[in-house]
Design a protein that fits this description.
It is built from no helices and 14 strands. It has strands at about 25-35, 40-55, 55-60, 65-70, 75-80, 80-90, 95-105, 120-130, 135-145, 165-180, 180-195, 200-210, 215-225, 230-240. The chain is globular.
Length: about 240
Protein backbone atom coordinates (compact mmCIF):
# COMPACT_ATOMS: atom_id res chain seq x y z
CA UNK A 1 0.00 0.00 0.00
CA UNK A 2 1.23 3.50 -0.77
CA UNK A 3 2.56 5.73 1.95
CA UNK A 4 0.05 8.35 3.17
CA UNK A 5 2.56 10.67 4.78
CA UNK A 6 3.73 13.62 2.74
CA UNK A 7 7.18 15.18 3.32
CA UNK A 8 7.52 16.22 6.92
CA UNK A 9 8.47 19.79 6.18
CA UNK A 10 5.14 20.47 4.50
CA UNK A 11 2.96 18.67 7.04
CA UNK A 12 3.74 20.34 10.36
CA UNK A 13 5.89 17.35 11.28
CA UNK A 14 3.13 15.22 12.79
CA UNK A 15 2.27 12.72 10.05
CA UNK A 16 2.97 9.03 10.66
CA UNK A 17 4.76 6.93 8.05
CA UNK A 18 2.63 4.07 6.78
CA UNK A 19 5.10 2.18 4.61
CA UNK A 20 8.23 0.20 5.50
CA UNK A 21 10.88 0.77 2.83
CA UNK A 22 14.38 0.29 4.27
CA UNK A 23 15.79 3.55 2.91
CA UNK A 24 14.33 6.38 0.83
CA UNK A 25 15.62 9.65 -0.61
CA UNK A 26 13.09 12.21 -1.74
CA UNK A 27 12.50 15.76 -2.86
CA UNK A 28 9.39 17.93 -2.69
CA UNK A 29 8.45 21.14 -4.47
CA UNK A 30 6.12 23.50 -2.64
CA UNK A 31 4.39 26.71 -3.76
CA UNK A 32 1.95 28.82 -1.76
CA UNK A 33 0.17 32.17 -1.55
CA UNK A 34 -0.48 33.76 1.85
CA UNK A 35 -2.15 36.83 3.34
CA UNK A 36 -2.24 37.76 7.03
CA UNK A 37 -2.91 41.00 8.91
CA UNK A 38 0.74 42.04 8.48
CA UNK A 39 2.10 40.09 5.53
CA UNK A 40 1.05 39.14 2.00
CA UNK A 41 2.90 37.36 -0.76
CA UNK A 42 3.95 33.94 -1.95
CA UNK A 43 6.77 31.46 -1.66
CA UNK A 44 8.26 28.51 -3.50
CA UNK A 45 10.53 25.89 -1.97
CA UNK A 46 12.62 22.78 -2.61
CA UNK A 47 12.67 20.22 0.23
CA UNK A 48 15.11 17.27 0.05
CA UNK A 49 14.66 14.48 2.59
CA UNK A 50 16.13 11.15 3.74
CA UNK A 51 14.28 8.36 5.55
CA UNK A 52 14.99 4.94 7.05
CA UNK A 53 12.30 2.53 8.29
CA UNK A 54 11.52 -1.03 9.25
CA UNK A 55 8.32 -2.62 10.55
CA UNK A 56 8.59 -0.88 13.95
CA UNK A 57 10.94 2.08 13.70
CA UNK A 58 11.39 5.00 11.32
CA UNK A 59 13.66 8.02 11.25
CA UNK A 60 14.37 10.81 8.82
CA UNK A 61 15.52 14.35 8.19
CA UNK A 62 14.55 17.17 5.85
CA UNK A 63 15.77 20.63 4.92
CA UNK A 64 14.36 23.38 2.70
CA UNK A 65 15.43 26.25 0.47
CA UNK A 66 12.93 28.99 -0.34
CA UNK A 67 12.19 31.97 -2.53
CA UNK A 68 9.92 34.24 -0.47
CA UNK A 69 8.06 37.30 -1.74
CA UNK A 70 6.87 39.24 1.29
CA UNK A 71 5.07 42.62 1.10
CA UNK A 72 6.66 43.31 -2.28
CA UNK A 73 10.24 42.35 -1.29
CA UNK A 74 11.92 39.12 -2.42
CA UNK A 75 14.26 37.00 -0.30
CA UNK A 76 16.10 33.71 -0.78
CA UNK A 77 17.26 31.44 2.00
CA UNK A 78 17.11 28.17 3.88
CA UNK A 79 14.37 27.03 6.22
CA UNK A 80 14.68 25.17 9.51
CA UNK A 81 16.21 21.67 9.43
CA UNK A 82 13.93 18.97 10.86
CA UNK A 83 14.81 15.53 12.26
CA UNK A 84 12.05 13.07 13.14
CA UNK A 85 11.60 9.57 14.53
CA UNK A 86 8.75 7.12 14.99
CA UNK A 87 8.14 3.96 17.03
CA UNK A 88 5.20 1.58 16.60
CA UNK A 89 4.25 0.46 20.12
CA UNK A 90 1.35 -1.90 19.42
CA UNK A 91 -0.32 -3.53 16.44
CA UNK A 92 0.74 -4.62 12.97
CA UNK A 93 0.39 -3.29 9.41
CA UNK A 94 -3.41 -3.57 9.56
CA UNK A 95 -3.87 -1.55 12.77
CA UNK A 96 -1.16 0.04 14.84
CA UNK A 97 -0.37 2.90 17.19
CA UNK A 98 2.76 4.51 18.48
CA UNK A 99 4.80 7.59 19.20
CA UNK A 100 6.46 10.01 16.83
CA UNK A 101 8.57 13.06 17.54
CA UNK A 102 10.27 15.82 15.59
CA UNK A 103 12.80 18.48 16.48
CA UNK A 104 13.65 21.49 14.33
CA UNK A 105 16.83 23.52 14.41
CA UNK A 106 16.55 27.31 13.84
CA UNK A 107 18.62 27.40 10.66
CA UNK A 108 16.15 29.64 8.78
CA UNK A 109 16.18 33.44 8.98
CA UNK A 110 13.36 34.23 11.42
CA UNK A 111 13.55 37.96 10.61
CA UNK A 112 12.42 37.21 7.04
CA UNK A 113 9.85 34.58 7.90
CA UNK A 114 11.98 31.63 6.76
CA UNK A 115 12.54 30.11 10.20
CA UNK A 116 10.91 29.81 13.60
CA UNK A 117 13.76 31.44 15.50
CA UNK A 118 13.65 28.68 18.14
CA UNK A 119 14.36 25.02 18.55
CA UNK A 120 10.95 23.33 18.32
CA UNK A 121 10.12 20.06 20.09
CA UNK A 122 7.12 18.24 18.58
CA UNK A 123 6.11 14.88 20.15
CA UNK A 124 2.84 13.16 19.18
CA UNK A 125 0.84 9.94 19.30
CA UNK A 126 -0.42 8.28 16.11
CA UNK A 127 -2.89 5.60 15.10
CA UNK A 128 -3.34 3.88 11.72
CA UNK A 129 -6.06 1.47 10.66
CA UNK A 130 -6.17 -0.31 7.31
CA UNK A 131 -9.00 -2.47 6.01
CA UNK A 132 -9.17 -3.68 2.45
CA UNK A 133 -8.41 -0.58 0.32
CA UNK A 134 -9.01 2.04 3.01
CA UNK A 135 -6.41 3.53 5.36
CA UNK A 136 -7.39 5.85 8.22
CA UNK A 137 -4.80 7.78 10.24
CA UNK A 138 -4.84 10.29 13.09
CA UNK A 139 -2.32 12.09 15.30
CA UNK A 140 -2.47 14.17 18.47
CA UNK A 141 0.57 16.00 19.80
CA UNK A 142 2.15 19.05 21.35
CA UNK A 143 4.64 21.53 19.92
CA UNK A 144 6.72 23.89 22.02
CA UNK A 145 9.52 26.38 21.33
CA UNK A 146 12.66 25.95 23.42
CA UNK A 147 14.82 28.99 24.05
CA UNK A 148 14.48 32.48 22.60
CA UNK A 149 11.68 34.83 23.55
CA UNK A 150 8.64 33.42 25.33
CA UNK A 151 6.20 34.47 22.60
CA UNK A 152 6.17 35.75 19.04
CA UNK A 153 5.25 39.39 18.63
CA UNK A 154 4.27 38.57 15.03
CA UNK A 155 1.83 35.74 15.81
CA UNK A 156 2.18 32.41 14.04
CA UNK A 157 5.61 32.02 12.46
CA UNK A 158 7.41 31.43 10.13
CA UNK A 159 5.58 32.51 6.99
CA UNK A 160 6.69 29.38 5.12
CA UNK A 161 5.40 26.97 7.82
CA UNK A 162 3.33 28.89 10.40
CA UNK A 163 2.71 27.49 13.87
CA UNK A 164 2.22 28.78 17.39
CA UNK A 165 5.06 28.94 19.86
CA UNK A 166 3.09 26.52 22.09
CA UNK A 167 0.22 24.47 20.69
CA UNK A 168 -1.69 21.22 20.70
CA UNK A 169 -1.51 19.68 17.23
CA UNK A 170 -3.90 17.26 15.55
CA UNK A 171 -4.62 15.60 12.23
CA UNK A 172 -7.12 13.11 10.83
CA UNK A 173 -7.41 11.70 7.35
CA UNK A 174 -7.97 8.74 5.11
CA UNK A 175 -6.80 7.22 1.87
CA UNK A 176 -8.36 4.88 -0.69
CA UNK A 177 -6.32 2.60 -2.96
CA UNK A 178 -7.90 2.77 -6.42
CA UNK A 179 -5.32 0.20 -7.53
CA UNK A 180 -2.32 -1.26 -5.67
CA UNK A 181 -0.23 1.55 -7.17
CA UNK A 182 -2.64 4.52 -7.03
CA UNK A 183 -4.16 6.12 -3.93
CA UNK A 184 -6.29 9.20 -3.26
CA UNK A 185 -7.05 10.76 0.10
CA UNK A 186 -8.09 13.74 2.20
CA UNK A 187 -6.92 15.13 5.51
CA UNK A 188 -7.54 17.96 7.97
CA UNK A 189 -4.91 19.16 10.44
CA UNK A 190 -4.39 22.04 12.77
CA UNK A 191 -3.04 23.58 15.94
CA UNK A 192 -4.62 25.02 19.08
CA UNK A 193 -2.53 27.52 21.11
CA UNK A 194 -2.01 26.55 24.72
CA UNK A 195 -0.40 28.44 27.59
CA UNK A 196 0.66 31.41 25.45
CA UNK A 197 -1.14 33.77 23.04
CA UNK A 198 -1.73 32.39 19.55
CA UNK A 199 -4.24 31.56 16.85
CA UNK A 200 -6.22 28.45 16.02
CA UNK A 201 -5.22 27.14 12.61
CA UNK A 202 -6.91 24.53 10.40
CA UNK A 203 -5.68 23.16 7.07
CA UNK A 204 -7.59 20.94 4.64
CA UNK A 205 -5.81 18.75 2.07
CA UNK A 206 -6.61 16.59 -0.96
CA UNK A 207 -3.94 14.16 -2.14
CA UNK A 208 -3.15 11.68 -4.86
CA UNK A 209 -0.19 9.28 -4.85
CA UNK A 210 1.11 6.65 -7.22
CA UNK A 211 4.00 4.17 -7.32
CA UNK A 212 6.15 2.91 -10.17
CA UNK A 213 8.90 0.46 -9.33
CA UNK A 214 11.05 2.00 -6.60
CA UNK A 215 9.57 5.47 -7.07
CA UNK A 216 6.62 6.93 -5.17
CA UNK A 217 5.17 10.27 -6.30
CA UNK A 218 2.46 12.38 -4.70
CA UNK A 219 0.63 15.65 -5.35
CA UNK A 220 -1.26 17.48 -2.61
CA UNK A 221 -3.43 20.59 -2.67
CA UNK A 222 -3.83 22.33 0.70
CA UNK A 223 -6.15 25.17 1.72
CA UNK A 224 -5.96 27.34 4.81
CA UNK A 225 -9.36 27.07 6.47
CA UNK A 226 -8.70 29.05 9.67
CA UNK A 227 -5.87 31.01 11.25
CA UNK A 228 -4.32 32.34 8.01
CA UNK A 229 -1.57 29.70 7.64
CA UNK A 230 -1.79 30.35 3.87
CA UNK A 231 -4.48 30.87 1.23
CA UNK A 232 -3.56 27.86 -0.88
CA UNK A 233 -0.50 25.63 -1.14
CA UNK A 234 0.56 22.88 -3.52
CA UNK A 235 3.11 20.15 -2.83
CA UNK A 236 4.54 17.71 -5.37
CA UNK A 237 6.97 15.08 -4.07
CA UNK A 238 8.82 12.01 -5.26
CA UNK A 239 10.90 9.46 -3.34
CA UNK A 240 13.20 6.63 -4.38
CA UNK A 241 13.23 3.56 -2.11
CA UNK A 242 16.26 1.27 -2.02
Amino acid sequence: MLCWAAPARAQHHHEADTDAASFAAGVAMVAAAFETMLYAGNYQGVIPSLRWANERFAAGASAAAYRLEENGATFYGFGDVIVHGQVTVIGDRAARAGVLASISAPTGDDRRGLGMGHVMLMPALFGIWAIDRVVLAATAGYSRAIGGSSAHEHGMWPLVEPMNVSEVTWSAGGGYAITPAVQVGARVSGGIPIGLPGDNRVIGSLRGAWASGRFQTAAELQAGIAGDPFIIRGVVSTALSF
